[in-house]
């Protein structure tokens, strides 16, 4: 509904603040007021008019009250942040708009990169030196020099340097140098692996152009390589092969002609190494191990990334080899960085306004969201504001994503609403501004690295959200810059190990004396007749395991649901998340358009059929779920503060029994409930932690319903610990699920990936810090609701519509834990018998 300003007749904005008041304002003439919360917007507007008539509403005076309540930042504090810096007009407007709380303003400056030797001094092949001179490159950066030397000397190397700093040249030049000295024609010498086909195809022309000038042959081989091109590659193998791990996995276990080319490999280059975190990385660990088995040479490994925190340790686990790390700096540049907390509106409204302001000034903008849903919703709302924007995310067809990249590069598109798919080095041309939702700082720096590559002034905005960790950063912005993302893999994921050992036997028979570390799994497969012994070697039983391996995805575990629109496949979604997003009548987002699921056939056909809905349909859906955990194995236990916590193998039984309708454009997390005709059930094994929270005795004593106060306190604690751990563990809360068991005090937090991803282990290792931060989140939230709010106890991933939660009970629980109160893990069904 549109309300007119009583002073200038412009549009009036009415927003609910994070401390449950109503902020009424006119952007044109600047009058504003802060009123008590009421669900009836008409009543709020009528009270505002009455106060205006009484002369109580002005364009000055309210700001002081907003400052005192922590809704906006005092101007003198913002000026102090600015210091001697000189933000331009757009940045200044945003800093002093009084619409959001300015948590941090910084000018991010890259120092002048440290220079290394001149190209003639490096002892490179003459053809390489001549080509570098043609490209007007006379001197290497110091990190490039170090990388070239170490790779030429056959060392295993991790190159960690910012986006667009010259990492590709740092590994390409020494590979070509070695090829010129050592390679025999007709063999693959080096494999360059990229995490996606799109990125490999994007980087291929650059690599090919450089290499072929020096007489080195480069080819790309992936799912899009045509049959004649494949034959040419097999008949005349290139010296450098550009591909991805999916291709290596598939061709090795099928023992294709292509896989026979891989046996001559001497160097494996893995770019964007940070992507191989979680389940994908656990699979890649085994694919690398398998490549070593079939190679006649000892392979040299080179990894490159802009965002690895502990690159040496992570890559040593990924490759199973000792590595040395080389650090580099980027090109000199300057970016205005602002961290904003949306006190008077939602995160999405803030992001939409930022993209509108910047595109109106012809600044090309990338808006990064952390989920498919948020990228779609933002694009829908930005289009209503006349922003020329399109969605770019995984799950959309390749040709659509390529078209979006091309249009943005050719200046036919002002903005892209994207997920982390565009964090990688795909070239989308010139970017002026990056707007990002909350992510770890090292990934933010990589996103910001996309902007201002041509030397212009860059803009970067971190839009904090309506969630617990954002509220924490509002009050502790310096901590944000300390919370570096942790990359993690779990090579002992039983499902990954089980499938990859089968694949190893398919690659090449397993002899008696190898793979002793997997002996238990090998024997398990022999008993199940998946493997058999032939001529004293272990070989695959192809008839039995063929379909099993064909269905396996190295990027996730579990089968997928195929998505159809008018009998045409338009995407897929992996189980179990597919049950939550594609149940009958769910609203599903695809390329900025919403559809309703009219048919969901599971588990027989594993398909979902979509139908179009009106653009004006006011809702989207969120599923309602029930879960039950069973501890199967305890890997380790310890005491955190006084609380006993165990890291376990868990069996999770999951049921999707309904959904809620949530109004489009609203950031609320409760909605109208609808039950499914028949629940959808799924169970899986994963890894997680369990701890026993202390009783909230003070709250229980005062409560009318003691069981409610206790159980809802544990439920709220579960939410806050997951959200509070988010940046400590490197943004892994997206990968975690949680369960609190009634009044037992038992709280489970587990990996959402089947078999485990390593996320819960990252939380287990840093549990004390997560508990301390969780307490601060609840304590510092100014809301006065018993159940809390989205910025403290609510979770956008909660499977039961955020019912029921108790903020003050959770606060007492967290305070007791942080003071060192002791608890033990006991089974609620067996009296005081230890649970684990």
How would you describe what is shown here?
- β31 (736-740) and β32 form a beta hairpin.
- The protein has 6 domains: 1-71, no CATH class; 72-110 and 333-472, Rossmann fold, CATH 3.40.50; 115-327, 3-Layer(aba) Sandwich (Rossmann fold); 494-551; 560-617, no CATH class; 621-818, no CATH class.
- The protein has 836 residues and is α/β, with parallel strands linked by helices.
- The model has no long low-confidence stretch (mean pLDDT 85).
- It is globular.
- It contains 28 helices and 32 strands.
- Residues 350-495 form the Helicase C-terminal domain.
- Residues 148-326 form the Helicase ATP-binding domain.
- InterPro entries: DEAD/DEAH_box_helicase_dom (IPR011545), Helicase_ATP-bd (IPR014001), Helicase_C-like (IPR001650), MZB (IPR018973), P-loop_NTPase (IPR027417).
- It holds the Pfam family DEAD.
Properties at a glance:
836 residues, alpha/beta, Rossmann fold, seven-stranded mixed β-sheet, seven-stranded parallel β-sheet, 28 helices, helicase
Give the N-terminus to C-terminus distance in angstroms: 57 Å
Low-confidence stretches: none
* Broad shape: globular
What is the level 1 CATH name of the largest domain? Alpha Beta
- Compute the number of helices: 28
Mean pLDDT: 85
Biggest β-sheet strands, sense, barrel = 7 strands, mixed
Q: What structural category do the secondary elements indicate?
A: alpha/beta
Placed side by side, the strands forming the largest sheet appear as 5-15-20-19-16-18-17
Say how many strands there are. 32
Question: How much helix is in the residues?
Answer: 25-40%
Using only C-alpha atoms, the radius of gyration works out to: 28 Å
CATH superfamily membership of the largest domain: P-loop containing nucleotide triphosphate hydrolases
GO molecular function: 3'-5' DNA helicase activity; ATP binding; nucleic acid binding
Pfam family, one: Helicase_C
Protein name: Helicase
Domain Helicase C-terminal: 350-495
């Amino acid at each position: 509904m549109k309300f007119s300003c009583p002073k200038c007749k412009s549009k009036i904005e009415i927003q609910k603040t994070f401390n449950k008041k109503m902020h009424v304002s006119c952007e044109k003439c600047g009058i504003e007021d802060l009123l008590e919360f009421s669900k009836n917007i008409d009543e709020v507007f009528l009270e505002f008019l009455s106060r205006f008539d009484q002369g109580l509403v002005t364009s000055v005076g309210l700001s002081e009250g907003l400052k005192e309540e922590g809704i906006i930042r005092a101007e003198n504090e913002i000026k102090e942040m600015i210091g001697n810096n000189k933000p331009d007009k757009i940045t200044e407007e945003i800093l002093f708009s009084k619409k959001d709380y300015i948590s941090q303003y910084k000018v991010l400056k890259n120092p002048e990169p440290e220079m290394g030797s001149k190209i003639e001094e490096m002892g490179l092949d003459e053809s390489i030196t001549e080509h570098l001179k043609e490209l007007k490159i006379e001197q290497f950066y110091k990190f490039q020099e170090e990388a070239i030397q170490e790779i030429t000397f056959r060392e295993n190397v991790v190159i960690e340097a910012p986006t667009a700093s010259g990492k590709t040249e740092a590994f390409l030049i020494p590979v070509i140098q070695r090829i010129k000295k050592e390679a025999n024609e007709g063999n693959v010498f080096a494999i360059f692996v990229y995490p996606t086909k799109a990125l490999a195809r994007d980087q291929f022309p650059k690599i090919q152009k450089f290499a072929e000038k020096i007489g080195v042959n480069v080819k790309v081989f992936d799912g899009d390589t045509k049959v004649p091109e494949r034959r040419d590659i097999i008949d005349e193998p290139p010296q450098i092969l550009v591909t991805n791990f999916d291709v290596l996995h598939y061709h090795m276990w099928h023992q294709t002609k292509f896989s026979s080319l891989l046996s001559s490999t001497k160097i494996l280059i893995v770019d964007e190494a940070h992507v191989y975190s979680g389940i994908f990385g656990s699979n890649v660990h085994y694919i690398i191990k398998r490549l070593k088995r079939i190679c006649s040479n000892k392979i040299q490994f080179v990894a490159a990334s802009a965002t690895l925190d502990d690159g040496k340790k992570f890559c040593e686990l990924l490759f199973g080899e000792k590595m040395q790390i080389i650090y580099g700096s980027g090109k000199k540049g300057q970016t205005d960085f602002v961290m904003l907390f949306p006190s008077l509106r939602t995160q999405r409204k803030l992001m939409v306004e930022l993209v509108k302001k910047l595109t109106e000034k012809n600044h090309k903008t990338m808006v990064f969201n952390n989920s498919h849903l948020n990228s779609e919703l933002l694009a829908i709302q930005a289009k209503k504001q006349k922003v020329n924007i399109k969605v770019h995310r995984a799950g959309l067809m390749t040709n659509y994503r390529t078209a979006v990249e091309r249009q943005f590069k050719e200046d036919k598109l002002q903005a892209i609403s994207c997920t982390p798919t565009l964090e990688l080095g795909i070239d989308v041309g010139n970017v002026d501004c990056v707007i990002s939702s909350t992510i770890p700082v090292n990934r933010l720096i990589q996103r910001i690295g996309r902007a201002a590559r041509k030397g212009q002034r860059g803009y970067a905005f971190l839009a904090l959200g309506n969630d617990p960790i954002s509220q924490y950063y509002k009050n502790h912005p310096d901590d944000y810059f300390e919370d570096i993302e942790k990359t993690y893999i779990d090579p002992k994921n039983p499902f990954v190990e089980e499938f990859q050992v089968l694949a190893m036997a398919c690659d090449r028979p397993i002899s008696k004396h190898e793979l002793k570390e997997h002996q238990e799994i090998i024997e398990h497969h022999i008993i199940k007749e998946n493997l058999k012994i032939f001529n004293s070697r272990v070989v695959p039983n192809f008839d039995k395991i063929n379909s099993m391996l064909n269905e396996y995805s190295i990027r996730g575990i579990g089968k997928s649901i195929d998505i159809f629109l008018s009998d045409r496949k338009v995407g897929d979604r992996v189980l179990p998340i597919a049950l939550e997003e594609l149940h009958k009548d769910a609203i599903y987002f695809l390329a900025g358009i919403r559809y309703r699921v009219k048919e969901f056939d599971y588990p027989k056909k594993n398909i979902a059929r979509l139908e179009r809905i009106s653009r004006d349909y006011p809702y989207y859906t969120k599923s309602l779920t029930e879960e039950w955990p069973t501890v199967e194995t305890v890997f380790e236990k310890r005491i955190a503060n006084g609380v006993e916590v165990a890291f376990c193998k868990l069996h999770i039984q999951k049921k999707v029994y309904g959904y809620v309708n949530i109004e489009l454009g609203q950031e609320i997390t409760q909605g109208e409930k609808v039950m499914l005709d028949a629940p959808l059930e799924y169970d899986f094994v994963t890894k997680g932690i369990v701890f026993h929270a202390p009783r909230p005795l003070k709250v229980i004593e005062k409560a009318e319903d003691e069981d409610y106060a206790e159980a809802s306190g544990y439920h709220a604690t579960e939410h806050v610990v997951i959200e509070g751990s988010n940046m400590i563990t490197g943004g892994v809360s997206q990968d975690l699920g949680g369960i609190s068991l009634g009044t037992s005090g038992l709280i489970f937090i587990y990996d959402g990936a089947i078999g485990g991803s390593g996320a819960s282990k990252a939380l287990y290792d840093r549990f004390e810090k997560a508990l301390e931060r969780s307490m601060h989140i609840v304590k510092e939230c100014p809301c006065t609701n018993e159940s809390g709010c989205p910025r403290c106890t609510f979770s956008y991933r909660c499977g039961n519509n955020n019912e029921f939660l108790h903020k003050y009970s959770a606060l007492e629980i967290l305070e007791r834990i942080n003071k060192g109160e002791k608890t033990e893990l006991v089974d609620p069904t067996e009296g005081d018998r230890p649970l684990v």
